[in-house]
């Protein structure tokens, strides 16, 4: 019999991307069987579904299923007998990427445009039968993450244009820099059913096409099948073709080894976040069709709860709200949300998708600190269900949520729960009258009415012993927030460190929207084709382009000498300093004076670009240092020389070592000034790019305030000029110059027990500056505040190298 030309063409197409016939044959057989020989599905998008299935086969090592004895299959046998080039397994992932690129470039679908591909699929009302009243469940088909034509439940919808906004510590004349983190709204397809107590959101389909794994998986050249798995078949719906039964060879793949740190864009799922290897680590079955079930009320316990059957049973009425997720290697994810706690509520009415998206955005931005690489998409899905419930049962309290920062979990759990606020000497603990854990941290804000919930300042002496013990755990001031414990000691008095909420990652406050989505991060700024450790790679890593093609870190994890020296010189040497001036300085503008003062300039700095989730390298890549957090033994101590509390190292630190990041609340400058009626001791401007890029809006000028929420860096005291730490802007998540991390590195070797200091960059004469003025006791020979710290005369000398030196005149 003449060979089937369609089979020949399939082999040829796969051959073009380096996949041998031996590999194609069994998979093609399975697909033909699975799709009832529907060749259109297999051929669409240049055999996308076939390629994906082959890659999945490799990933999951699914045993070949028994061959079908039909004519197509026989043809395949014939064609497949032709010997073919062996494709090495190591090449597989690259082939896959290659295929993705090629498929993308000549695929049938129009390519996605950032921020514009959220398209609501057309779903006919009559296709959506109301669910039984008692069930009150919502089902979402989340298919093909990343498609223009296939909006996804978890997918960026809009990406804010990169707005160059700066960063720098709140020093006059200092810079730091950074980027906007764009949050991507959930692209959830709305299914209208105002009068129904159940809702279904099908997001894996274009228009009215049947909801089936096959269709979904073949849609887009950019989706990656390892993210999407077919799940349980939902109840048959009129107008929607029934699903095929899912073969037991399909595996549940949950991309989580390298967590997805944001809503996943429709057209971009970074390879880096989908490590098949991680499946075994997570104890997921590969080779079996599986379902992940999550009850977000106890997320950690329930995350491990997985089912190996194809049965996505309706949640029993007595169980709390829950979600279940399952997917197939063919590119479809099914998410089923059930809010049983809505049962019996007469006012239950599903919110619109836009309402849901908006509320979810707010939650994600404020609750999940999206810059956190450990961002957990499961928690987001759980929250989404809660949002639906909230919107569905009460539309009146929406605004209240929007303006309030949900407290950190640790606050919720702690005996001294519910709030921190600021006073003259730092934070006083505040309790909220309402048990709900909404918190607004505001300098003057204690006692403020927050979203209808009142915060009450509790003076420190009224704290219970439990609360004091919690606040002042001498063995670990971080209360477990860092990888290492950081103790505190007071060898001089019985005072405790000021109460504050320890956080290890920056927290977004109010209007300071720090938004990003993976989609918004251009490929050109990430090393997507790297793998392993970029420092060891022969090929040029895109991330290193930011520093002229060289990495700034050595394999020992410290800064390279030349880069560090350049940073130090750019900061200290007046001849090398470059001040960038804004046309309209956000700092000056935020002062709201009648006359806008000219910009005082922001120090130009070197910036470090670290690899991140969208990069192809692994987490142990040597170009990831700051994101790993504190690593050395540090201690908070009461300084003996009147500077208050300080930070010191308990071990010798090499030159160029990363010590810690400056972590705090991310605020707009306006917000800082609003809360800053009493000047703050710990604000830092993120102004590294101000003047370079222009800052068009107040809202885009960000700073960090560690007064109420902060990490150990809030204890680092100032030293004029020759401090042993230097702060360097570090781009991790996105290079849009609006937001960045501020990391401290040693400028020299530091001995054990030496105090760690950095130069705040203060102009001690600038009384207008938002940083609280203090009489400097740094003890440096080069102190810029000598006149205030001593009444003795000071001799100022300009040294040969251009540095300025102040000498005390001894009597
Ligand atoms: C970021 S905090 C540092 C931690 C602070 N010492 C504490 O006890 O919490 C900055 C404040 O520390 C004090 N400080 C920092 N460096 C100082 C210095 N060189 N001389 C005197 N006081 C200093 C000032 O009160 C300043 O407002």
Structural class: alpha+beta
Beta-strand fraction estimate: 15-25%
Shape: globular
Q: Rg, please?
A: 29 Å
The total count of strands amounts to 32
Distance between the termini: 111 Å
What is the helix tally? 17
Adjacency order of strands in the biggest sheet: 4-1-8-7-5-6
Largest sheet: 6 strands, mixed
Molecules bound to protein:
S-adenosylmethionine
| Mean pLDDT over the full residue set | 61
**Helical proportion?**
10-25%
Low-pLDDT stretches: 62-71, 79-320, 395-460, 788-799, 802-811
Domain SET: 632-761
Region (Disordered): 58-115, 151-219
Protein name: Inactive histone-lysine N-methyltransferase SUVR2
Domain Post-SET: 772-788
Secondary structure elements and pairings:
Layout: H1 5-16, H2 21-34, H3 39-60, H4 71-80, H5 92-106, E1 137-143, E2 165-167, E3 176-178, E4 199-202, H6 213-217, H7 277-281, E5 291-294, H8 299-303, E6 306-307, E7 322-328, E8 332-338, H9 353-367, H10 377-393, H11 398-402, E9 405-406, H12 409-413, E10 420-423, E11 426-432, E12 438-439, E13 449-450, E14 453-458, H13 465-471, E15 487-489, E16 501-502, E17 507-508, H14 561-572, E18 579-580, H15 586-590, E19 602-603, E20 608-609, E21 634-638, E22 645-649, E23 658-661, E24 664-668, H16 669-675, E25 683-685, E26 702-710, E27 717-718, E28 725-731, E29 741-746, E30 755-758, H17 786-789, E31 794-798, E32 804-808
Parallel strand pairs: 1-4, 15-21, 16-26, 17-24, 20-28, 27-30
Antiparallel strand pairs: 1-8, 2-3, 5-6, 5-7, 7-8, 9-12, 10-11, 11-14, 13-14, 18-19, 21-22, 22-30, 23-29, 24-26, 25-26, 28-29, 31-32
The structure holds S-adenosylmethionine.
Residues 498, 643-646, 681-682, 714-715, 717-718, 772, 774, 776-778 line the site of S-adenosylmethionine.
């Amino acid at each position: 019999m003449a060979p089937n030309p369609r089979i020949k063409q399939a082999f040829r197409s796969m051959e073009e991307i380096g996949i041998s016939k031996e590999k194609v044959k069994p998979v093609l057989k399975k697909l033909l069987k699975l799709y009832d020989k529907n060749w259109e599905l297999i051929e669409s998008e240049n055999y996308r579904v076939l390629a994906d299935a082959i890659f999945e086969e490799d990933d999951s090592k699914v045993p070949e299923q028994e061959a079908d004895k039909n004519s197509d299959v026989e043809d395949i046998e014939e064609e497949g007998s032709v010997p073919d080039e062996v494709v090495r397994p190591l090449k597989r992932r690259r082939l896959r990427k290659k295929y993705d690129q090629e498929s993308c470039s000549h695929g049938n679908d129009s390519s996605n445009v950032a921020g514009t591909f959220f398209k609501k699929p057309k779903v006919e009302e009559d296709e959506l039968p109301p669910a039984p009243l008692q069930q009150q469940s919502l089902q979402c088909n989340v298919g093909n993450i990343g498609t223009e034509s296939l909006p996804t439940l978890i997918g960026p919808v809009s990406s804010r244009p990169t707005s160059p906004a700066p960063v720098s510590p709140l020093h006059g004349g200092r810079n730091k820099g950074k980027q906007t983190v764009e949050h991507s709204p959930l692209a959830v397809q709305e299914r209208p059913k105002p009068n129904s107590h159940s809702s279904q959101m099908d997001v894996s389909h274009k228009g009215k096409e049947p909801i089936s794994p096959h269709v979904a998986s073949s849609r887009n050249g950019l989706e990656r099948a390892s993210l999407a798995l077919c799940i349980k078949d939902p109840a048959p719906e009129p107008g929607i073709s029934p699903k095929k039964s899912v073969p037991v060879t399909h595996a549940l793949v949950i991309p989580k080894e390298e967590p997805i740190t944001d809503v996943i864009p429709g057209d971009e799922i970074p390879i880096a976040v989908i490590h098949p290897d991680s499946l075994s680590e997570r104890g997921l079955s590969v080779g079996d069709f599986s379902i992940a079930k999550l009850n977000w009320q106890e997320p950690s316990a329930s995350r491990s709860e997985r089912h190996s059957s194809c049965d996505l049973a309706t949640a029993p009425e007595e169980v709390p709200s829950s979600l279940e997720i399952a997917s197939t290697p063919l590119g479809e994810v099914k998410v089923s949300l059930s809010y049983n706690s809505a049962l019996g509520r007469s006012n239950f009415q599903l919110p619109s998708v836009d309402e849901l998206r908006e509320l979810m955005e707010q939650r994600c931005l404020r609750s999940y600190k999206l810059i956190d690489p450990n961002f957990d998409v499961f928690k987001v899905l759980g929250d989404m269900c809660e949002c639906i419930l909230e919107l569905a049962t009460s539309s009146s309290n929406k605004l209240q949520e929007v303006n309030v920062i949900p407290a950190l979990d640790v606050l919720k759990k702690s005996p001294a729960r519910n709030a921190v606020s600021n006073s003259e000497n730092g934070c006083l603990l505040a309790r909220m009258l309402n048990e709900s854990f909404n918190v607004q941290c505001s300098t003057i804000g204690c006692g403020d009415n927050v979203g209808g919930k009142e915060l009450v300042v509790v003076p420190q002496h009224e704290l219970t012993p439990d609360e004091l013990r919690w606040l002042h755990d001498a063995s670990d001031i971080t209360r477990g927030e860092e990888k290492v414990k950081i103790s505190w000691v007071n060898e001089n008095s019985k005072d405790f460190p000021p109460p504050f909420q320890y956080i290890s990652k920056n927290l977004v406050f109010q209007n300071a929207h720090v938004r990003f989505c993976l989609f918004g991060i251009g490929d050109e700024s990430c090393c997507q084709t790297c793998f392993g450790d970029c420092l060891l790679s022969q090929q040029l890593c895109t991330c290193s382009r930011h520093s002229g093609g060289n990495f700034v870190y050595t394999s020992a994890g410290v800064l390279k000498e030349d880069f560090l020296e350049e940073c130090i010189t750019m900061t200290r040497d007046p001849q090398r300093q470059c001040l960038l001036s804004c046309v309209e300085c956000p700092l000056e503008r935020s002062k709201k004076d009648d006359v806008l003062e000219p910009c005082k300039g922001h120090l130009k700095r070197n910036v470090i670009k670290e690899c991140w989730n969208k990069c192809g390298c692994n987490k142990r890549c040597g170009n990831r240092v700051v994101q790993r957090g504190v690593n050395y033994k540090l201690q908070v101590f009461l300084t003996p020389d009147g500077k208050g509390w300080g930070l010191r190292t308990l071990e010798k630190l090499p030159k160029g070592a990363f010590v810690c990041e400056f972590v705090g609340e991310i605020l707009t400058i306006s917000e800082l000034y609003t809360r800053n009626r009493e000047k703050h001791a710990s604000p830092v401007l993120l102004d590294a790019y101000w003047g370079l890029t222009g800052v068009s809006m107040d809202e885009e000028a960000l700073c960090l305030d560690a007064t109420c929420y902060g990490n150990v860096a809030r204890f680092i005291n100032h030293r004029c000029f020759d401090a042993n730490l230097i702060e360097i802007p570090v781009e991790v998540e996105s290079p849009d110059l609006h937001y960045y991390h501020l990391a401290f590195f040693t400028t020299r070797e530091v001995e054990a027990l030496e105090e760690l200091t950095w130069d705040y960059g203060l102009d001690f004469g600038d009384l207008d500056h938002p940083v609280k003025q203090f009489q400097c006791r740094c003890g440096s020979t080069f102190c810029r505040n000598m006149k205030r710290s001593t009444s003795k005369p000071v001799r100022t000398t300009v040294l040969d190298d251009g540095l300025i030196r102040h000498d005390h005149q001894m009597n």
